[in-house]
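Complex 292.
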Amino acid sequence: MQAWFVKRMLLRQFVLHLALGLLAALPVVHAQTREGVEVGESSVFTKIVPADRVERDASLQYQQTLTQAAKQHALGPADHPQVQRLRAIMDKIIPFTSPWNPRAQQWKWEVNLIGSNQINAYCMPGGKIAFYTGILNKLQLNDDEVAVVMGHEIAHALREHARERIGKGQATEFAARIGGSLLSGLLGIDPRLGDAVAQTGANLVSLEFGREDESEADLVGMELAARAGYDPRAGVSLWQKMAANNKGAPPEWLSTHPSGTTRIADIEANLPKVMPLYERTKKSASSESGNQ
Ligand SMILES: [Zn+2]
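Predicted structure with zinc ion bound:
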């Protein structure tokens, strides 16, 4: 065959493939428009530290926290009604986590109750959750509100906000070593971050996240709660309870989760995206129980 003919045939094949590819891509793109909240791409800093290392560190720190709590007789036993309640809520949320992070399928999820007056709860990388008795008792949280708090904390873990902060800390430290604040400025990171996170080694229990990570966790958390069959409107009553409890000294959770009218307004603005998910789960649960 002559070279021009081969070239033309290849070109024709290429065009055909391109057209078929575009056609095939169309329904896929359509299928990818998902229901629920919208959040952006993960930060580039997330990839600096390997996920399994962060999860291993978190697991060690979690075990240390539990051992310490047990020594002080402050670890809720498995037959404690509040522990059973927390575990039931966690079990309903877990099936909806992996679309946010495929690693979550392998996580060894755990939730424990720690006896402390602090209004606090967290989920460490790898799915290690803790609730303090303070947040349940002082705020008298109903199941929907517990699910919203848990969803929010789980969202931090799924979106790897801790890994992102550690990555940022390491990048800052690296920048400081080779060129100081100029590179920090170029990368758009706070030069003080390096001291707080990279040098001391991250304390994964009490990490403070930025405003963007917080609003992302609010949104992903309310979607998780809604899909699991918990009323996402509880996000509003939760923050109202938090604010009302903030009269004296600010509760622990509130110091890392600054409240504000914008927070409640954002939650309210996103309710229409997650209410249909909640209503669907409720409906299928009630028709299932009706069939029994
Ligand atoms: Zn948070």
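The longest helix spans residues 261-291.
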